[in-house]
Amino acid sequence: MTVKLKPRLAGVASLVPSGTVVADIGTDHAYLPVHLVQEKACPRVIAVEKSPLNSRLAQETVNLFNLTHKVEVRVGDGLLALDEKDGVEIVVIAGLGGKTVCRMLIAAANKLRSYKRLVLQPMGDVPLVRRWLAAHGFCFARERLVQEKENYYEIIAVEKGRQIVKEPIFLEIGPALLRERDPLLIPWLKHKLEHYEKVMQGLLRSRNGKEDPRWRYFNFQYDRLKGVLEDVCRGE
Ligand SMILES: C[S@@+](CC[C@H](N)C(=O)[O-])C[C@H]1O[C@@H](n2cnc3c(N)ncnc32)[C@H](O)[C@@H]1O
User: Fold this and answer.
1) Predicted confidence (pLDDT) per residue in 9-19, tens digit
2) Is the minimum distance from the CB of 9 to ligand 1 under 6 angstroms?
3) What integer pLDDT is reported at residue 12 of this predicted model?
4) Quick check: CB of 67 below 6 Å from ligand 1?
5) In a mutational test of the pocket of ligand 1, which residue from 29, 60, 96 has the highest number of ligand atoms less than 8 Å from its CB?
6) How far does the centroid of ligand 1 lie from the alpha carbon of residue 68, in Å?
7) CA 8 to ligand 1 centroid distance, Å
8) Same structural domain for residues 202 and 113?
9) Does residue 2 sit within a domain?
10) What mean pLDDT is predicted for residues 217-226?
11) Given 120, 148, 163, which residue is the final one in a domain?
12) Is the C-beta atom of 25 inside 6 A of ligand 1?
């Protein structure tokens, strides 16, 4: 019996190198750890969960797939639940808000450099997460876009290294998404532009209209986003 992941988690799994020791922070149902052992030859996965109830659900999944010798469910708070002795190489944080991801990274900032790779899939505030990573000695090794119905998800794999972010728009778009010309890059940029248009139209209807600093900010970002889309379409 194998576990079948939805596209979002399958995308996360695709950025985890095969055969590595992994910690899945905020594992919930522990489907990802089971998949990593079954499909990516991961010898050991620590499935960290803050909620005792969800950790019980995670343990049930692990028991169901007879993987108690390879997947350890651990109740704890973020990366603080990990110990050097665990020998974790890859840390995954998926499905949590960007601010929560940043808080977890900040809380464990002194241990982060001991990991080979962090695979992050924040639900929102992704530029904030990229900004923190770039400012703290991580470079964007790989990034991927995944679509589930009308939602797009950004998955970021960072490693130790220097990252130059030429201008703020590349915190929003993702340097590796651009570099690797992700197959979903063009539809995703168009989707983002549509979202900006809706937000700007809403702001225009408000009292301050174009004088609203948020409208000016969105207008600026919109123009840059459009410029990047045109460059990508021209193959630059
Ligand atoms: C929305 S679920 C995401 C589950 C899975 N990672 C995914 O991507 O589908 C978030 C999980 O993270 C857990 N969580 C929230 N804060 C946490 C923390 N500080 N440490 C560990 N787990 C946490 C929650 O209890 C919940 O089970």
Assistant:
1) 999 999 999 99
2) yes
3) 98
4) no
5) 96
6) 20
7) 15
8) no
9) no
10) 93
11) 163
12) yes
Residue 177: inside a domain, yes or no?
Answer: no
| Domain C-terminal end among 163, 178, 198 | 163
Same domain for 14 and 90 = yes
C-alpha pair distances (Å), 71 with each of 17, 22, 37, 236: 17, 10, 8, 45
Nearest-CA residue for ligand 1 atom 12 is 26
Give 23-71 pLDDT, tens digit per residue: 999 999 999 999 999 999 999 999 999 999 999 999 999 999 999 999 9
pLDDT recorded at residue 235? 85
- What's the domain range around 30? 7-163
- Kindly tell me if the per-residue pLDDT of 209 is higher than 90: no
For residue range 82-97, what is the model confidence (pLDDT) as tens digits? 999 999 999 999 999 9
179 Cα: distance to centroid of ligand 1 (angstroms): 30
Residue 36, pLDDT score: 98
* Dist. CA 145 → ligand 1 center (Å): 21
The two three-digit tokens of residue 142, written as one number: 């790989």
Residues 166, 21 contacting (CB under 8 angstroms) = no
